[in-house]
Amino acid sequence: MKNKILIGVISAIVIIALIGVIVFSIQGQKNNENVLVLGMDDSFPPMGFRNENNELVGFDIDLATEVCNKLGMTLEIQTISWAAKEQELDSGNIDCIWNGFGYTEERNEAMTLSDVYVKDKSIFFVKNDSEYSSQEDLKGKKIGVQSGSVQERRLSEDEFGNEIGEMIAYTDYLTALMDLEAGNIDAVYMGAISGNYIVKTQNKDFKTFESVGIGDEGKGMVIAFKKGNTELKDKVEKAIAELKEEGKVKEIAEKWFGEDLTV
Asked: How far apart, in Å, are the Cα atoms of 54 and each of 15, 57, 105?
């Protein structure tokens, strides 16, 4: 009987020890400084998206891969809900938000942001056969945006946002553009780089016109790190600067944009 109790105690100790090793191993992987966990929306072409083979590809992924190669780090890509991106960063589930992330003063206060590395602007997409040709024509109309996007914030805060009929938030811009194509909304307000890429690669019958006076378009795309994590930000920025000098950034930009839109 005593032997059975002893064996049971030893077995329990072994199980507890194994659990501890597993937990420690998981924590070690999560805190490994040689791993960069990149948080992204997997439906934002050409910055980061899934191709026809369900592979995660895009400009930001190619650039992050080269940065990690230069830093001797392993890139780990984690898809996230774009509406919950700030919480993912704050909780430590990801090390950075790197996926066409637009600069705003509000984001700069809440996170540690890199220098702008790509210039973009927000424009309206409408059906080619529509009667709309300017922002003024969209008063009283339904306009689609992505939930949690710079465009959603700008439209909700701007005076023009009070003059439209309804702002509809989508989980991603691909869905918004599909709804536009189906005639369920009148326009989509989004970044020019992503919108033009979708129109070109999917042969969509849309036309565009620029927004007027909606928010600050003076910045561009940045990489976001947890507030105070300047060490990682500086390492990534230094690597990007070196890659730019080597011509690698230009090469990646021309592959995805057809021209060098990097800053």
From this structure: 39, 9, 35
Report the CATH number at residue 128: 3.40.190.10
Summarised one tens digit per residue, pLDDT across range 214-226 is 865 557 899 999 9
Q: Specify the number of domains making up the chain.
A: 2
Q: Bridge partners of 188?
A: 125, 144
**What is the span of the domain harbouring residue 142?**
122-210
Residue 141 lies in a domain: yes
Question: In the Cβ-directed half-sphere of 242, how many Cα atoms lie within 13 Å?
Answer: 12
151 within 8 A of 124, measured Cβ to Cβ: no
* Residue among 44, 99, 125, 96 at smallest CA distance from 226: 96
Q: Are residues 108 and 47 in the same domain?
A: yes
- For residue 76, what are the β-bridge partners? 37
Tens of pLDDT, residues 108-130: 999 999 999 999 989 999 999 99
- The angle, 0 to 180 degrees and rounded to 10, between the axes of the packed helices 230-245 and 248-257 is 90
Q: Give me the phi and psi of 199, to 5 degrees please.
A: -60, -45
Residue 263 in any domain: the answer is no
Other Cβ atoms within 10 Å of 154 Cβ, number: 21
* Contacts of 180 by beta carbon, 8 Å cutoff, 6+ apart: 125, 126, 127, 144, 186, 187, 188, 206
CB burial of residue 28 (10 Å; 0-12, 13-18, 19+)? exposed
Q: Does some domain include residue 2?
A: no
- The answer on 110 and 78 residing in a single domain is yes
Q: Which residues of the chain have pLDDT under 70?
A: 1-32, 215-218
